[in-house]
Design brief:
single chain; 151 residues; D-tyrosyl-trna(Tyr) Deacylase, Chain: A; two-stranded antiparallel sheet; 2 helices
Length: 151
């Protein structure tokens, strides 16, 4: 997830999703991700206080600053690079599982009152963004790949 000043997704020369201020969320769905993971991630994204308040401290969430969310599916986040030099993607959920989870995350964020733009699932996309800060945070709903987890 990255805090952005401006971001867009282009597919085949056409802009399919665009936000101004807000969050760019690159979403990699793992084989064992389920509906609970979607809900946890939606709550964390909506509530994460990474935008500056009047004192310049990260103390406001995306809704509090009138921000938007751009979700981009990215199975390569599930790459297994533990051996060799060619990543394996067996940890990634197959498209028939990943796409509904990705769409459910978009729906969850919209239900929380956020404006959500998306890329095109499974397409070759150009993701363009101006990272604000820069602020980039790795979120995982479970302890995988040494990432922190939360409850």
């Amino acid at each position: 997830m990255q805090r952005a000043r401006d971001a867009s997704v282009v597919v085949a020369g056409r802009t399919v999703g665009r936000i101004e201020r807000g969050l760019v969320v690159l979403v990699g769905v793992a084989r064992d991700d389920d509906a609970d993971d979607v809900t946890k991630l939606g709550a964390k994204l909506a509530g994460l206080r990474i935008f500056d308040d009047a004192d310049g401290r990260m103390n406001r969430d995306v809704a509090a600053v009138g921000g938007e969310v751009l979700l981009v599916s990215q199975f390569t986040l599930q790459a297994d690079t533990r051996s060799g030099t060619r990543p394996g993607f067996s940890p990634a959920a197959p498209p028939d599982v990943a796409e509904p989870r990705y769409e459910a995350l978009a729906d969850d964020l919209r239900a929380r009152g956020l404006t959500v733009a998306t890329g095109t699932f499974g397409a070759a996309m150009e993701v363009r963004l101006v990272n604000d800060g820069p602020v980039t945070i790795f979120l995982d709903t479970r302890e995988r790949m040494g990432a922190p987890t939360w409850t």
